[in-house]
Amino acid sequence: MMPKKLMQILGLSSLMACAAVVVGLLGIILFDMTGKGVQVLSWEFLASFPHKGMTQGGIFPAIFGTVAITLLSTLLAAPLGIACAVWLAEYAPNHAFTRLVQASIRNLAGVPSIVYGLFGLAIFVEGLHMGMSVLASGCTLALLTLPSVITTTEEALRRVPVLYREGALALGATKWETMRSVVLPAAVPGILTGVILALSRAAGETAPILFTGVVFYSRFLPYSVFDEFMALPYHLYILSTQHHEPDIARPLAYGTALVLLVLVLALNLVAFIVRAKQR
Amino acid sequence: MRRRMFWDRLFERIFAGSALVAVLTLAGIFVLLIINAMQAFGTLSIRHFFSNTPWNPSAYEIPTFGIGALLSGTILTTFGAMALAVPVGIGTAFFLSEIASVRMRNLLKPAVEMLAAVPSVVIGFTGIVLVGPFLARLFDLPNGLNALNGSILLAVMALPTIVSVAEDAIHAVPHTYKEASYALGANKWETLIRVTLPACYSGIVAAVMLGMGRAVGETMTVLMATGNATAFPDSMFSSVRTITATVAIEMGEVPSNTPHYYILFACALVLFLITLAVNVGAEHLASRLRKRGQ
Hints:
The structure holds two protein chains of two kinds.
Chain A: H1 2-37, H2 43-47, E1 50-51, E2 56-57, H3 60-91, H4 96-110, H5 113-127, H6 134-158, H7 162-170, H8 175-204, H9 207-210, H10 232-242, H11 246-278
Antiparallel strand pairs in A: 1-2
Chain B: H1 2-43, H2 46-50, H3 68-99, H4 102-117, H5 120-139, H6 147-171, H7 175-183, H8 188-199, H9 201-217, H10 220-225, H11 243-251, H12 259-293
Helix pairs in contact in B: 1-12, 3-6, 3-9, 4-6, 5-6, 6-9, 7-8, 9-12, 11-12
């Protein structure tokens, strides 16, 4: 009987160790980034332009650029993604085209972000003559986040009880009226969660914007959607790998990493709260 | 009434049209990669591309393009990452769904989600400032930017995917299976290994494959942490360059419509096909599990 019990103890504690590793990894990342990033954080760091070859000054244009492309991409992806999810959850008949749509969405979610970057370069930057711009990057990021917006919205719609729909239809509403005034409002928290998570995903991505609009330094903020921009993830990449004096740039890199991390995790926290309130 | 029916029809069309966008995007990516890659194979033979020709696009006399070294960089870092992430990820998934108390679950699940949310460039940065120096000291290397570093970081990137997909699979195993096992006198561990694990095996494999897809396609972490030498790697301590990193480094510098430009599209096509195969395979396994579950 003894070895049986011993095996159980060993086995279960090794599973616990695995979970501890996962939490530990997150802890190490957060601890290191926060500990060293906080030292350079200041109002000046957040609100001024970098100067002296990025060894001094702040990251304001990078924050601005990231916020701009993130908002733009979500503005594009949300209506499209929600509409697609409504079709899948409410209208789609069970036939080949529906399965094709579902398979496309699943596979789009697995396409590497760098491939989206090339697609954006060929289609938006060159094909549609948007040039390296906020618009081209926003469109590329919109396509990247589309699958996750669709999936979360579809789930949210499927959680709305059938009774709601039947009630509205019985009162003589058309299907669209039922959607607009009953089903979609009921699914808002779930949809919102998905959209916020898409924001967070778009804010942290680097590869898709590499060839579609991001630059490592710009003296001006983008005036219009056709201008180039700086972005937090790319700024971090440049400071940590391409800078000629890595030791001087290191603290600034930590600061940038912390700002990016806080932005992304704050969005996740908001999504988490919206979801928790819904239950 | 007629007006209301008009709006009803219009919106149905709009919704269906949006669904079409998803299909068109995937098809568009595929067609675009093929068209551009075809241009590359006008000047370069496919055999040459896949043989052990070195990757030397900026050679003074004749540039050579062989994807072999890059592909082995991708394979080496990905398998290294899987060797680390698979046991830890599956262990965590089992812990979450079979052992953890509700309170612990409520703490652990957000932690896994937070790890998934950490941007890849931040993970890459930890490769430079934490993992690299650590490896250099541990193995007495001049610097820690090598395949092993990339593998460790990719493992971190793949972990959340593996944990959440595997957990769903474990969760789908019917309670009756476990109860029958307990009734026969098996303890928790025996039930887990001999009953639950075999029952959700295909779901676990799907989780591993999706994690692998994630690792193969990851760009920034490997770009920052593996050292980016284009030679064939000898070991986990070699500096390697993956396909993703190559595209990221070189695409920004090549002029459009040159052979080099098209060859980078060919590299991306290889990447796309690998991830597509992995995802289709994972979905096939997952759907088999769903069918059996019903």
